[in-house]
Fold:
Amino acid sequence: DAGVIQSPRHEVTEMGQEVTLRCKPISGHNSLFWYRQTMMRGLELLIYFNNNVPIDDSGMPEDRFSAKMPNASFSTLKIQPSEPRDSAVYFCADREGAGNTIYFGEGSWLTVV
Amino acid sequence: AQSVTQLGSHVSVSEGALVLLRCNYSSSVPPYLFWYVQYPNQGLQLLLKYTTGATLVKGINGFEAEFKKSETSFHLTKPSAHMSDAAEYFCAVTNTGNQFYFGTGTSLTVIP
Structure:
């Protein structure tokens, strides 16, 4: 299995632009998580889905952030408009059924200038 | 509420020396505990996990960890450090499989 696949791996964008990060979870894994990692705040859970339904989005920083999971094999995290303080590594992770282990993708390195 | 505390944000060891990375957790119910490793510019990779059963768990790359309920600890060890072990290590706890609480990470440096 290829694991959790994220794209793009690196993105540099200008302040005010829309950013869309994509995630393909492992086939059959029905929970999906979006995390943000920064030096200052460490790993933060932004949102997670079970069976494509958002369960907890309390970690989403503000209305500029939105996440969707239209089907079991695809999710997006969108930032509109982007700001320099959004610069971070964004990780997608998933979990298999009733399992208790999450598996991370390689991350999307976002720089907003 | 659950939480994880990793003691020491930076640990340096000589190549061949014992590696000890400390993790203490707080959980009101029996926890599931994890160690993840993050190499530069990569995602987090599962090293090992404790769910139930044997309290000493072995993971990849020669690492192991022991769940000590009385001490609420889950310290990570490796008898002999290798240069390739240099990375960031994260301890995590969950009881539901939905909310995972991560520590702030420990950066391991291996000195040749």
Chain B has a mean pLDDT of 92. Chain B touches chain A at residues 32, 34, 36, 41-46, 49, 51, 90, 94, 97-100, 102-105 (CB under 8 Å). Chain B has no helices and eleven strands.
